[in-house]
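agent> fetching stored inputs for the uracil docking request
agent> found them:
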Amino acid sequence: MNRLSGHTNLFASLTSYLQSLQESGLDGIPLEMMKPMQFETEAQPAIFMKTGVSDGMNENISLPGKSESLEHIRKDLGDCQRCKLGTTRKNLVFGVGNPKARLLFVGEGPGADEDAQGLPFVGDAGKMLNRIITAMNLERDEVYICNVVKCRPPQNRPPESDEVALCSPFLLRQISSVKPEVIVALGTSAAQALLQTKTPISKLRSKFHNFHGTPLMPTYHPSYLLRTGGNSDSFWSVWDDMTQVLQLLKLPVPVKTRKR
Ligand code: URA
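agent> prediction call returned; pasting tokens
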């Protein structure tokens, strides 16, 4: 690719990205400098959407600086039909919890129970997430819980990249509104979408990544724990990750011993 066509592609990518942000209700992007922070991570800050340019181009785009309420963001979503998931969902699943939570969990997308109730993590995976939250000595309503996509993908398939790209500006705004001190990305879809990487969750987990200046801990999805068992190695890996989260939040770490 020559220099000129590279610039043209970059311009087209940025134009389409800005248009999608505008459609989702954003009226500006503050080009703040990232806060210098130390993270043990190879992942670059993410802007959620493939721009066709190297990750390094994303460094100056940060979370929306203006403070807006979650209600305002929900109102902007309206009866969302921005992507094809809008045609098959029963209920849009926005998010739930403390609007000023110190800790924010991001899952993949609603399943059947969530679609029926319009609430995230209320089915079996939700019960496992509740178990994790309780084990951390926290209450479900003191954290914030949302998903990468707000509508159920048919047959619970992983969300596709166009669906993630169209829904992500709203997730970005939710995170920006809540301003959590730590984000936990539950599973492959959430971790890969937020960190704009294809690295497997097994390699991403167990260390903090820099998400626009906020520490982000990827960990296994609760559904994966359901498949591997509540006392499995993966369950204890999640507990190790949550231990790091509690330490960063300067909260007491409950002592847990594995039953053999
Ligand atoms: N799995 C998810 O990723 N999110 C939900 O809300 C429910 C199940």
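agent> quick read of the result: Residues 1-14, 28-37, 42-61 have pLDDT under 50 and may be disordered.
agent> awaiting further instructions
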